[in-house]
Amino acid sequence: MKLLAPQIRGAGWLALALLLPVFSATPLHAAANEPASYNGATALQWAQRMADSQMARMGSPPKAKWDYTDAVFSNALLALSDQTKQPGYADYATKLTGAWVTADGTIPNYKASNHVLDDIAPARVILELYNRTGDARYQKAAQLVREQFTEQPRTSDGGFWHKQIYTNQMWLDGLYMGEPFYAAYAKTFKEPTDFDDIAKQILLADQHTYDAKTGLFYHGWEDTREQSWADKATGHSPSFWARAIGWYAMAIVDVLDDLPADHPARPKILDTLQRLAAGLARWQDPKSGLWWQVVDQGSREGNYLEASGSSMFVYALAKAVNKGYLPKDQYAPVAERGFAGLVSELVKTDANGAVSLTQICETAGLGNGRDGTYNYYVHQTKMINNDLKGVGAFVLAGLAVAQLGAIAPADTSLPPAASSATADLTPAQVAQMGWDALPVVLSHINAPTFADKNFPITDYGAKADGTTDCTDAIRQAIEACNKAGGGHVIVSDGTFLTGGIRLLSNVDLHLSDNAKLQFVPDLSKYPQVTIRYEGVERQNYAPPIYALDQENIGVTGKGTIDGGGENNWQAVLRPAGGMRPNFVVPFHCKNVLIDGLTVHNSPMWEINPVYCTNVIVRNLKIDSHDANNDGCDPDSCRYVLIDGCTFDTGDDCIAIKCGKDDDGRRVNLPTEFVIVRNSTMKDGHGGVTLGSECTPAIRNVFIENCHMDSPNLNAFIRFKDSPSRGGIIENIFMRDVNVGSVAAKSAGFLVEYTYQSSQGNYIPILRNVSISNVTGTNIPQLVKITAGPTAVFENIQMKDCTFTGPNPAELQQNQGRITFTNVTIQPKGAAPATTTSSTTPATN
């Protein structure tokens, strides 16, 4: 139902909603083992339709060519012939590529001395024809091409030049042109030592072109850094071109067919494949399921969804799943969504039933005026239809997807915990699975265990009199516990005065029920250490409780830690300089447990894990009302559980962060896989705040079963970013949350995307947000979004919620889209109104 703005106002309420387009080509699954349907046909049927249409366009017999584009199509036809048991496809491949070989095994116009890797690709078809027919001319032709590797020029570390005229350059394209044939030849003619060289080529490409920040691979690399396109420090080209990565992906999965199972490099190649797959899943367009011409640039002006690279990705991912190289539960859905997107977006059917593949980049390279920049790939290359590089890859993709079989929704959303604990879900998978991803995330989070040995701090000279300095005694107890292999450092009942405490691996600092650690703001007791202050690394006075590069650490028990308060710290810092330290800071640690404590009088943020993995914060009672007293701030952390806590704070109850501005981009560590549940936000600004330090990404956050009620509450969920910071906040899920009051001048759902600045060159992105089963009894304003023109908002949904108090005249949304489904809003003094699916333009 579409509600017009005047009708909505007449009802006394205003729904802010824009229904997003429905992705109509999602594969439909019926009974188990029944093939998935894509716009009415199976993947295998689409592969046949595309092959049949292309053969009709080329005519019969086709013009024989020794060309790598024809080779891609010929390889696809041979595979299609095998899968459908229809020899006509193999016959056509024989005429297209095999006919170029003469009766004596020579290949007219092929010259090994040109040293062009592209010229090797058709030999793979020839070798396959030899294996099928035993024809001696094919064997001679394959042997002729094999000799090219012997003299092919190499980089200083042994990588094949892409062409002799492209000196000292490795291109990802060349990996597909040469290595699958090289591997098949080595297997066919039993030359096992060649596999060392083949593996070397794949791993050198990984070494020189992989970008850990994006998970993608640059198009090319130049050994001497003499080319204008080559980065002077690294040698790689500037951009991530889809088809280059596609060539590399296909090369890896095809080489693995022939690489011996016991080859020592196989695990490294599989690791490369797994990282490549994770990168592809990360950058899969969430709306179409496809990939962009310049993969990491999304819908930037000029960029387009590109068919050949997308087809190659689908083929490589689906084949890797079929072969067991990648987990089915994680990557089959990525491949299926990709194939569905190809069919829905880029395959066109004419009046005669012939199908075409559109939006294929005709050609791209490096050098000779081709600078490898974004502008080159999107503006200086030509986009065409039915290029064989794309058509062949599409057929292969259809064949591989067809072999995946039917995958019921439950299979994609709930992988077994035993296997899921070994691999991360990708952002695309989490977006697709939603709340069904929660058990998978939980399977990665486990509390550390400690040896059953106790080290009372009183044994080392500590006195519970509130006046004796126990700093050194606590240090000795921790060091002794660590040296003995771990255990519990016991703080017994009473008040112990102390300076900074530094935790070590396998040590649990355990406070008895009536124990209190009273931290004294004496700067001499807090030596300078590396910290992150509001998203930027720097040196500062050590936090009262600190750990650096440790594993299996805990601060537990029902006692109290008292940080001394903001005013006392400000008094000592004012003449000395420096910043208030955050209270409990495990820094670059693994397996952290903070459990049961009462946290009081924090100098600044209270619980602040930084660069940590596997963190549990539970059953805390936080009572600290000074300025900037955030309750829990996970910063660039992975797998964090905040459970059963009470927050009574002077700032945000929970603030999820991942670094700020240039330093955040330098470190480039997202915060991901965070669970907040069963907690009470008694007082504080934001119930759950994401940002403002959110460069590069905050993602995969689950919030459930919480209660929030405070006259100071700015929002039950709050997003903070700006064009000067940029970054992505995505896959945020909230459900079963009860909200009492929200501050009079704020909003329940608050987006501040010009936070502290409205200027900058970075794009702040908010996408895939789901709010469900949230109730609010005194919400003066439900939604407020402030953002500049560059901000991106995608797929923000609110459903099955009820709110009392919003005044429709106060609702603001400067930019963005929200879909309301079954949301009831009862304004002050008016009857409630409910929408089941409402749409209206955002208001200003």
Note down, in words, how this protein is organized.
The chain has 844 residues and is of the alpha/beta class. 30% of the residues lie in helices and 25% in strands. It is built from 22 helices and 41 strands. The chain has a 22-stranded mixed sheet that branches. Strands 28-31-33-35-37-39 form a 6-stranded parallel sheet, with no helix packed on it. β5 and β6 form a beta hairpin. α3 packs parallel to α5. The radius of gyration is 30 Å and the shape is elongated. Residues 1-33, 406-422, 809-816 and 837-844 have low confidence and may be disordered.
Low-confidence stretches: 1-33, 406-422, 809-816, 837-844
Structural class: alpha/beta
Secondary structure tally: strands: 41
Share of helix among residues? 25-40%
The span between the termini is 23 Å
The main β sheet shows up as: 22 strands, mixed
> Number of helical runs?
22
Overall shape: it is elongated
Beta fraction = 25-35%
Instruction: Determine the mean pLDDT.
Output: 88
Question: Mind telling me the C-alpha Rg?
Answer: 30 Å
Write the layout of secondary structure elements.
Elements lengths: L4 H6 L32 H16 L9 H17 L2 H10 L24 H13 L2 H11 L1 H4 L17 E3 H17 L5 H16 E2 L4 E2 L2 E3 L19 H17 L7 H18 L23 H17 L4 H19 E3 L5 E3 L2 E2 L12 H6 L3 E2 L3 H15 L6 H5 L3 H4 L6 H7 L4 H5 L11 E3 L8 E5 L1 H13 L3 E5 L2 E5 L2 E2 L4 E5 L3 E5 L8 E6 L2 E6 L3 E4 L2 E7 L2 E3 L3 H11 L7 E4 L2 E6 L2 E3 L12 E6 L2 E4 L13 E6 L2 E4 L4 E3 L4 H7 L3 E7 L2 E4 L2 E5 L6 E12 L6 E6 L6 E15 L7 E5 L10 E15 L4 E5 L4 E13 L7 E2 L5 E8 L6 E3 L9
Parallel strand pairs: 9-11, 10-12, 11-14, 12-15, 13-18, 14-19, 15-20, 18-21, 19-22, 20-23, 22-24, 23-25, 24-26, 25-27, 26-29, 27-30, 28-31, 29-32, 30-32, 31-33, 32-34, 33-35, 34-36, 35-37, 36-38, 37-39, 38-40
Antiparallel strand pairs: 1-4, 2-3, 5-6, 7-8, 16-17, 40-41
Helix pairs in contact: 2-15, 3-4, 3-5, 3-15, 5-6, 5-8, 8-9, 8-10, 9-11, 10-11, 10-12, 12-13, 12-15, 13-15
